[in-house]
Amino acid sequence: MNTYAAIEIAVFFVILLALVKPLGLYMARVYQGTPCGLNQVLLPVERLIYRLSGVRPDSEMTWQRYAVAMLLFNLFGLLAVYGIQRAQGLLPLNPQHLGAVSPDLALNTAVSFASNTNWQAYSGESTLSYLSQMLGLTVQNFLSAATGMAVLVAFIRGLTRQKVAEIGNFWVDVTRSTLYILLPLSFVLAIALVSQGVVQSFGPAIDVTTVTASTDAEGKPIQTQQIPQGPAASQIAIKQLGTNGGGFFGVNSAHPLENPTPLSNFLQVLAILLVPAALCYTFGDLVGDTRQGWTLLASMLLVFVPLLALGLWAESVGNPRLADLGVDANASLLQSGGNLEGKEVRFGVGASVLWSAATTAASNGSVNAMHDSFTPLGGLVPMLLMQLGEVIFGGVGSGLYGLLIFAIVAVFIAGLMVGRTPEYLGKKIEAFEMKMAALVILIPPTIVLAGTALAVSFDAGRAAVTNPGPHGFSQILYALSSAGNNNGSAFAGLGVNNVFYNSLLAIAMFGSRFWLIIPVLAIAGSLARKKQVPISAGTLPTHTPLFVVLLAGIVVLVGALTFVPALALGPIAEHMQLLSNSAP
Amino acid sequence: MSTRTARPLFDPPIVKRAVLDSLRKLNPRHQLRNPVMFTVFLGSVLTLLLFLQALGRIGGESPWFILAISAWLWFTVLFANFAEAMAEGRGKAQADALRKSRQDVIARRLANNKLYEMVSSKDLSLGDIVVVKAGELIPLDGEVIEGVATVDESAITGESAPVIRESGGDRSAVTGGTKVLSDFLIIRCTAKPGESFLDRMISMVEGAKRQKTPNEIALDILLAAMTIVFLLACATLVSFSHYSVIAAGRGTPITLTVVVALLVCLIPTTIGGLLSAIGIAGMDRMIQANVIATSGRAVEAAGDVDVLLLDKTGTITLGNRQAVEFTPATGVTIERLADAAQLSSLADETPEGRSIVVLAKQKYGLRGRDVEGLGGHFISFSARTRMSGVDLEGRKIRKGAVDAMENYVKESGHEFPRSLREQVDQISKAGGTPLVVADNGQALGVIYLKDIVKGGIRERFAELRRMGIKTVMITGDNPLTAASIAAEAGVDDFLAEATPEAKLNMIREYQAGGRLVAMTGDGTNDSPALAQADVAVAMNSGTQAAKEAGNMVDLDSNPTKLIEIVEIGKQLLMTRGALTTFSIANDVSKYFAIIPVAFASTYPELGRLNLMGLSSGILSAVIFNALIIVVLIPLALRGVKYRAVGAATLLRNNLVIYGLGGLLVPFVGIKVIDLILVGLHLA
Fold it and tell me: From CA B105, how far away is CA B107, in angstroms rounded?
């Protein structure tokens, strides 16, 4: 890694942390319904939406009703995306005249975008019409993100309210998340991206004659090239801000028209972590103690930064076996050095690894480099970040409520250690909360491990692997880790557009999203009914550096210990082989 | 019973019984109660079957390796059983002692026609009236309706001094199994046979009716979830390993024995194996402190208490007031006052009276005299006159409450001096009780009787404050007196002129604010408040109603015990938390011991992860996992030490010891075991 990359990463953290408070405060105001600055413009729109849809914004819901509203809303979105894909051949805005998407792929994509995963078993430019991209995927990009934020806000209400059954109104939370937060941010980012050269048009793909002739895989000469077009910038903005990650084009943000310059790259990677980081402050503000929010953010960074450093180190050193072949991979005046296979030269090792860590820490999943080509340890970092349960930043809203569940477990164990019934923010953590928290923590690893076991046990699962040895295992484990934690990042290299993987991954994505939200809302409902225990010297403080370490420790121990044996057979074995010079 | 505090941790008879019990507890039905240990139990059975299968096979895994693993898995189960049996054994030994006093006795049941019939205590029923004479055992719990007698309650309390039981008032409750020493009592039975206090106490100390407490249930859920997750990780590992063998083109898949060994090492067996022992030991510690809790839930709640309501008298102050100063009226010498005060008190056997004699001697060198020998006649205190004194050589010396004495002085034709009035007010304001002394109707001065705050109690309250517990003093005194004593004792708040209703309301108020309230009480009028409080300790000397309303009974009838009870509750929770942390932290090292070996045939390169340089990592990890349970039994039984420092410090200390320790200790432990195995040529 060179100096420029180091500076870029430093600047990235400074800007990210500087934006946490202003954006966090803004979002807190939005959810409290107090003036936030955009009211004059947006309040009439908000009221109009309620009037048109018949929502009574002041009628609140119990956790069960909230959950039902959330499920129905997402089911409707899922079916709509499925329908649009299946019917896209008949619908307008289809200049490439693309036909209907196959049922299994359409289902996989619909679940993928409804669950904020954005796993893509297709290439956008050759599969989906502009209408499908805009009306189907972009809309879901907004709404699935808003769903995550709504559930988070409902959970926070559970922590702050006392002796009530209601935890808010789902429709209001979703509307406000979209209207006041995601739309304005996306608008600004889309304009900025267009300025950098990201395409935004309704025109058909452009056929051009190549400057230099080349040949394809079969040796036939290639003289023309198709340059895809489309309303990309508007979709990419929300893809990053809503931790969706679904690219407009097949190779996602590695594509020059999706992410053309280092600046567009910087803005996009910033947008990936922006909202999840700022929500920590929103949380602190809403619970009336901003230190609580900073603590959560610090815990995230405590896990994120060392893993990022490990990735940077692994990719900068590159593959030691290449040196044996006389290849110079060291950084010098002539090259940025490191492992550049699968990376865009305009980004280099630094920006690629930063992206890979950010996109998997947050449940974004977009890529600007091919993780399959990373060194074993470089590939282990994004895989592990997903396996931690997408709570290190995580999805917008979903990451923080996931971390709050881990906080409840941490408080439970630590609370016992100070000799009291554990309590978090004054709410007693009892058997019901533990039962639900156990579900939240159990479900993703269950899906990932059982899914991987299924895939390696069936021919259909094994056939998709394109590498021998531990790397092939990593490909499968990565795909399931991604779907089973709603990330959507692909290792690349695994052939996943078939009925087996489309179905398996669709089930994984659906389960790990909605089966988690229900217990999370159940905890919110249970906490809302409880009295708040006043703070005393005997209360476990949850805003101290010690708690930061404890929470990070619990996330790593509970989240990662489960995957150690599996990782040993994948990236760890591969890394050891590299070191041992004894790969078959 | 008096031996119960002195019993050593590993008492040989208890250990012997526990060893047998741990074999008896291998019953699958018993194992099923604990999901973590049941998993280990299944693993032991499975590996045993694998051993038998391997015996008849050539090649493959060594049957002796499987047997070794299986044996240590069985030990793991047995050690956990042993821990539980040890904890129970201590209670059982006590129960045996208690049972001896629960013999069937022949009771005299009073029939309608005033004659009594002899029936066995088993056949008594609620409401029956029995007569118990000196030397006989009281057949059942009851209430004295007639008579006064001394009763030996040592079977229950361990206190050998007899106590007085009489009808009416707060000393009317008697307990079945205690012995009447003098006189006789007529008792109405208030419990059915088999449901008496003694019966409940026996089942409590035996842990027979032990139900899981709320925190224990929550922890159980967490442990079960972790067990499931690791079960899943290990079960899927079989298919991962199969795939890896195909992908790498060499080696053999991981064996079932290794999978089971890995599973048992990963699931939280340390806390799982010790969990019920910790709970039982917590109850046992209460019993050591001579407190009988009606449920484990109450013990646990004690750790959560935020507010302690403490009665002033007997808890914060010594039961009796003491004379601290003589203040003469104008024109009277202090010596004359002291002399009169002493004379009036020489025959006064009340503690206040004695303290006056002591003060007169210490400050004015007045030696005790024999009043009777001087021909004096002692007038004892009565509720009507509210004064006491002595008639001696034509002098009538009196001392008593201010208003009573004022009347007496005036009736005798003297003035009640204004200066004295001021003195009296000053003493009242300072929280003291003034006693006026008069000689032949002339007011000589005033004695300052002071409530004496118990030594060390102020420090105790400061300690409680550090624990985050608020102390509230309850007293019938007026607010002025109460405030001054509260300030002196260092309590956080006080309730003056307390009535039972005021107490009840105060508890409700605190509870509405989300706090948990603990209190002690003994009288029947305390019962509503006791029933409302979250932790309610009834004094054993108290009434039956109070004992019924509370959820703990203090056999020593010592109100300060509440503080100890809180500490025991906290210790119980802390021990669970500490061992859970330790158990989870242990897993890291076990991966380093097992993973490099488990896949050695497929990916020998993973041998680089064998940081400890173990030659038989799997067996060593399994042995460590079993032995650590035994090593930690004393900790589970004694509990993690509680120190009254804030929660933050407590967490830091415990995280360092049990978190960091849990991370590092097994690295050393496993290596040592491995070295021993190598030394014995077993590896």
Answer: 6
In chain A, what residues touch B578 (CB-CB under 8 Å)? 416-417
Determine, for residues A534 and B240 on separate chains, whether the beta-carbon distance falls below 8 Å: no
CB A337 within 8 Å of CB A318: yes
The CA-to-CA distance between both ends of chain B, in Å, stands at 51
- The ipTM value here is 0.91
The contacts of residue A220 (CB under 8 Å, 6+ apart) are: none
CB half-sphere exposure, A287, CA atoms < 13 A: 29
Q: Is the Cβ of A544 closer than 8 Å to some Cβ of chain B? A: yes
Q: Any bridge partners for residue B382, and if so which?
A: none
Q: Rounded to an integer, what distance in angstroms lies between the CA atom of residue A555 and that of residue A559?
A: 5
Q: Report which residue type is found at A557.
A: L
Listed by start position, the domains of chain A span: 3-580
Beta bridge partners of B328: B445
> One of B128, B141, B199, B311 is an active-site residue; which one?
B311
For residue A459, the chain B residue with the least C-alpha distance is: B243
User: How do residues B490-541 score in pLDDT, each as one tens digit?
Assistant: 899 999 888 888 889 999 999 888 888 999 887 777 788 888 999 999 887 7
Measured N-to-C along each axis, helices A499-529 and A469-484 cross at an angle, to the nearest 10 degrees, of 40
Q: Do B468 and A457 touch (CB under 8 A)?
A: no
Residue of A nearest to B246 (CA): A469
Q: How far is A97 from chain B (nearest CA, A)?
A: 42
Alpha-carbon gap, residue B216 to A290, rounded angstroms: 32
Q: Which amino acid is at B394?
A: G
**0.95 cut: is pTM over it?**
no
pLDDT (tens digit per residue) in B287-333 = 888 888 877 788 888 888 889 998 887 778 876 788 888 888 888 88
Query: Backbone phi, then psi, for B109, in 5-degree steps?
Result: -90, 130
Q: Nearest CA of chain A to the CA of B239: how many Å?
A: 6
For residue B665, which of B586, B604, B595 has the smallest C-alpha distance? B586
Query: Which range has the top average pLDDT, A1-5, A175-179, B104-108?
Result: A175-179
Task: Report how far apart, in Å, the C-alpha atoms of B540 and of each of B152, B294, B678 are.
Answer: 13, 13, 60
Question: A307-330: per-residue pLDDT in tens?
Answer: 999 999 999 988 888 878 888 877
Task: Please report the pLDDT score of residue B209 as a whole number.
Answer: 55
> Do the beta carbons of residue A163 and residue A427 sit within 8 Å?
no
> What is the C-alpha R_g of chain B?
34
- Taking CA B591 as the corner, what is the angle to CA B586 and CA B596, rounded to the nearest 5 degrees? 155
* Alpha helix stretches (DSSP H) within B305-455: 334-345, 351-364, 402-411, 418-429
Nearest 5°: phi and psi at A103? -55, -45
Q: Report yes or no: A123 at the B interface, CB cutoff 8 Å.
A: no
pLDDT in tens, B625-659: 999 999 999 999 999 988 878 888 889 999 999 99
Tokens linked to A147: 């769903």
Chain A residues inside the 8 Å CB shell of B593: none
By CA distance, what is B514's nearest residue in A? A533
Contact call for A434 and B466, based on CB within 8 A? no
Instruction: Show the tokens assigned to B57.
Output: 């096979």
Q: Average pLDDT of B42-47?
A: 96
Residue B355 CB-density burial (10 A; 0-12 exposed, 13-18 middle, 19+ buried): buried
Q: Which amino acid is at B172?
A: S
Angstroms from B45 CA to nearest CA on chain A = 24
Q: Which of A419, A473, A566 sits opposite B642 (nearest CB)?
A: A419
Chains A, B: CB contacts within 8 A come to: 231
Which residue from B minimizes the CA distance to A456? Answer: B243
The pLDDT tens digits of the residues spanning B100-136 come to: 766 777 888 887 766 778 888 878 888 888 888 888 8
Shortest Cα distance, chain A CAs vs residue B599, angstroms: 8
Name which of A462, A537, A577 is nearest B467 (Cβ-Cβ).
A537
